[in-house]
Structure formats: C-alpha cells, structure tokens
Amino acid sequence: RKVKGPVGPLAGRKVLITAGPTHEPIDPVRYIANRSSGKQGYAIAAAAAAAGAEVTLVSGPVSLADPDGVTVVRVESAREMLTAVEAALPADVAIMAAAVADWRMAEDAAQKIKKDGSGKPPTLQFAENPDILATLGHHAALRPRLLVGFAAETQNVLDNAASKLTRKNADWIVANDVSPATGIMGGDRNTVHLVSRDGVEDWPDLAKGEVATRLVERIAFALGARDA
Ligand code: CTP
Ligand code: CA
C-alpha cells in the first residue's frame, strides 16, 4: 500500500497552538487560574490538523480529549507553557489562544499556608509572568511567519486588541467580548473580530468549530499569498 503524505491547504506547514488556562501554584494545595475551557484553541488545533498541518498543541489544564492527529504537550504554569512553546519552534504559524495567568506567586511556598488564628488573611505577593505571544513576536531568529493572538476583553474590545497587536508584534488578533452580559465564556459559540494592520473584520456569531475552520482557511490563504 502506498503511503501518502498529508494533503490539504496546510500540508507541510508546522502550526503551534496554545490553549486553556494556566495554573499558578500558591502553595501545594492552591492555585490561581484564568477562566478558560480550552474549547476554542482545541477546535483550532483540530481544524489545522484536518487541513493537513503538523500541529503541536501546548495545553494548560483542561478537561478535553486530545484532538486527532495533534501532538499535545500538557503544562500547568505560564513558565512551563513558554518553555514548551519555545521547544516546539520553529513553526510557520503560531496561534496563542491560551488564557495565560498574568501573575504567579513571587516566591514558591513549599508548605501549605495555614490560618494563624488571628482572623487576618495572608497577603500574597505576585510577580508578572512572561508574555509568550510577545516573546514570539519579538523573537529575533524564530518568529513564526504568521503570529496570531487572542484578546478576550470586557470593554473597549477593538482598541485593546489593536494595542495588543502592536505591543506584541502579532499579525492578527482574534478579539472577543467576554463581558458577563454576553454569556460567552465557556460556551460553544463565539463572536469574534479579526484585527490586523489592514483593519477589522467582524465575524458573525459562530460555533467555536466554525470560527476555527474560518481561521484556518484565512491562515492557508495568507501563507499561500506570502509564498507567491
Ligand atoms: N498572552 C501570552 N502570555 C501572557 C499573557 C498573554 O502569550 N503572559 C497572550 C494570550 O495567549 C493572547 C494574548 O497574549 O493571545 C492577549 O492576552 P491578554 O490576556 O488579552 O493580554 P495581556 O497582555 O495579558 O493584557 P491584559 O492586561 O488585558 O490581560
Ligand atoms: Ca492577561
């Protein structure tokens, strides 16, 4: 039997995706985390694999099964996520869909923090986590040719997304409004705006799988155009 290589619009392309939250330990029994189901990032990984790409998905803790045909690297913290992302380079495309915790504890607590009986809660000291998207955006040697970030905002969605595009040196930002009134967080649908240096494209309300398929189509088109 003749073995065929991958076929599809992303055949031969390496795609790196982050998804899910990160967990930052407070002590051995507690952590801080962002709200993220991982569904959108996993859907993008599945769509990219279906389009023939060689996909690495670096995933924070989520309760989702590995998508078919995708190499999944599971991590907990932002710093572990950055290490795994850098280990997966080079990539043609990187899509940073993870909801990375902005802060971790400034110091590791080796022991469980105990109530001291005074009734006064402890004060936690935070340190800022590395920005994985910005690290890739400013990578001298290994910046992916197409770098896509996400921006989940509760206000000034498009302005905030545009400033993230510039600050992190991304090519596109997929922006969405996650204010509680939208009820979007954790659901199966998403209403996004594709923000690039050329302007903003408003996409209709779509299932997360449809957002993924459209994004993958746009990526294949953009890479094709860049090859020509
Ligand atoms: N991101 C990242 N590493 C971080 C923080 C964010 O890679 N430490 C990525 C996210 O995966 C996403 C994009 O940056 O693709 C925007 O994340 P967001 O949290 O909206 O941006 P921040 O720069 O953290 O700004 P904010 O203060 O609004 O949280
Ligand atoms: Ca953030």
UniProtKB/TrEMBL annotation:
E.C. number: 4.1.1.36, 6.3.2.5
A molecular function GO annotation: phosphopantothenate--cysteine ligase activity
Catalytic activity reported: N-[(R)-4-phosphopantothenoyl]-L-cysteine + H(+) = (R)-4'-phosphopantetheine + CO2; (R)-4'-phosphopantothenate + L-cysteine + CTP = N-[(R)-4-phosphopantothenoyl]-L-cysteine + CMP + diphosphate + H(+)
Residue numbers binding CTP: D102, K112, P130, D131, I132, L133, F150, K164, K168
Limits of the DNA/pantothenate metabolism flavoprotein C-terminal domain: 10-220
Alphabetical UniProt keywords: Decarboxylase, Flavoprotein, FMN, Ligase, Lyase, Magnesium, Metal-binding, Multifunctional enzyme
Annotated stretches, region: Phosphopantothenate--cysteine ligase: 15-228
Cofactor: Mg(2+); FMN
Keyword Magnesium found: yes
Keyword Ligase in annotation: yes
Transmembrane segments annotated in the record for this chain: none
Textual note on the cofactor: Binds 1 FMN per subunit.
Pathway it works in: Cofactor biosynthesis; coenzyme A biosynthesis; CoA from (R)-pantothenate: step 2/5; Cofactor biosynthesis; coenzyme A biosynthesis; CoA from (R)-pantothenate: step 3/5
Entry's family note: In the C-terminal section; belongs to the PPC synthetase family.
Job description of the protein: Catalyzes two sequential steps in the biosynthesis of coenzyme A. In the first step cysteine is conjugated to 4'-phosphopantothenate to form 4-phosphopantothenoylcysteine. In the second step the latter compound is decarboxylated to form 4'-phosphopantotheine. Catalyzes two steps in the biosynthesis of coenzyme A. In the first step cysteine is conjugated to 4'-phosphopantothenate to form 4-phosphopantothenoylcysteine, in the latter compound is decarboxylated to form 4'-phosphopantotheine.
Protein name: Coenzyme A biosynthesis bifunctional protein CoaBC
